[in-house]
Amino acid sequence: MLIQASDSNLTTPTGKLLLRNMSFQIQKGQLIHVLGPNGVGKSSLFKAIFEIEGLKISNLTKSSFSHFFLPQMENKEFLLPLSLGDLSHAKGLISNKKKGLEWNKASGGERKKALIDRALNHDCDLYILDEPFNHLDSDSIAKLNESFEKLLKQGKSVILISHKAPKIEHIKMDVSKWS
């Protein structure tokens, strides 16, 4: 078991209740698809698990494991003096032809692919990807699903916070039932 919540509540730093009566378990080698409508608390749940932004979960147990959390990429413009290849070193979603493209001139999909490549090239036990399919074409989504299958075969765990279900076997975690 990597993470377990038993009759847990998710609260803000001011004590506001966001999710209640949550019970779930995340184990090694699982792909978990976290779903629910916008604003229900999907991203907040994982920010709380990893103690980001002061969010808290009661009755939470975590074992010792390494993780990589890739937050949702919003359509905010920010300048980075990098090329896509600076982020995406290994063969992945970004083609060698696109690796020389400057971040500031890349499309949202190209940026997303470089960030996903960066995340999946870390060697860790658990990968948490918030809305990884946004801005991706169908070929990139298929390659991403293949990457998930490879990670699962290695005993790694993957959590996808997304409106789109992966095309491989997964466990559904519906956050809306806890709101």
Description of the molecule:
The chain is of the alpha/beta class. Helix content is 23%, strand content 26%. The chain has four helices and nine strands. The chain has helices at residues 42-49, 84-87, 108-120, 138-153, and strands at residues 3-11, 17-26, 31-35, 56-57, 60-62, 67-70, 126-130, 157-161, 171-174. A five-stranded parallel β-sheet has the order 6-7-8-3-9, sandwiched between helices. Strands 1, 2, 4 and 5 form a four-stranded antiparallel β-sheet that branches. The chain is globular.
Relevant terms:
4-stranded antiparallel sheet; 179 residues; 5-stranded parallel sheet; alpha/beta
Mean pLDDT level? 91
Q: Count the E strands.
A: 9
Assign an overall shape: globular
User: Any idea what the radius of gyration is?
Assistant: 17 Å
Report the end-to-end length measured between terminal Cα atoms: 25 Å
Characterize the biggest β-sheet. Answer: 5 strands, parallel
Number of helical elements: 4
> What structural class is derived from the secondary structure elements?
alpha/beta
**Helix-strand sequence:** EEEHEEEHHEHEE
Strand content: 25-35%
Low-confidence stretches: none
> What order do the strands of the largest sheet run in, or round the barrel if closed?
6-7-8-3-9
Instruction: Give the proportion of residues in helices.
Output: 10-25%
Secondary structure elements and their pairing?
Elements: E1 3-11, E2 17-26, E3 31-35, H1 42-49, E4 56-57, E5 60-62, E6 67-70, H2 84-87, H3 108-120, E7 126-130, H4 138-153, E8 157-161, E9 171-174
Parallel strand pairs: 3-8, 3-9, 6-7, 7-8
Antiparallel strand pairs: 1-2, 1-4, 1-5
